[in-house]
Amino acid sequence: MDILIGSSLIVAFIAGIAALFAPCCITVLLPSYLGSIFRQKRTVFLTTFVFFLGLLAVFLPLGLGAAGFGRLFSEYHDAIFTIGSLFFIFLGASILLGAHFSLPLFTSHGVKVRGAGSVFVLGVFSGFATVCCAPVLAGVIALSALPGSVFWGGLYSLTYVLGMVVPLFAIALFVDKTNIIERLNMFKKRISYSLAGKQISLTVADVVSGITFFLMGALILYLAKTG
To answer: pTM of the entire structure?
Structure first.
């Protein structure tokens, strides 16, 4: 179980980074974030933390809800692990094969950033907007449901949001000091390959999240089959 918990925390964190740099997310969250911190230059780090709390307000209830649902069916532990592992393997394979599916995206929030309260609301709206990263979000919700523990489900959600905001904290710390934003763009670089005559193009974030979910699925399947 320690292996599962440790691996799940790592996967949740990587998934958060991958979600941040997914095209449908980064185009919404990063401009909103930059717009908020550049209006609060003297309190950049605090503003980023408030933005993080806004994101957490969206994703924590999802994780807790999934964990509560998993707890209801904890008696079917082996079956849930097997189904979850197959889901992760399918999810990882679909991402690596270029199957891009997303939830509807709403980008118009109309929030004017004038203080901590508006930054928090902006984080909430950004959180709802980034729900468009359906594959990654589905994986994290599945992670939260597996252990049958509300505590661990909440912690996975917290780790997921940390994965999303750690790069933002890095921007906050080094903004105006280095080309940190340009360096973070490496996650948006594209990798292309051909499979059965079909050209598939993925971002680095896609490749990392796809491999991570696939390996996590294999680990969970092994744990399920070995008791």
So the answer is: 0.75
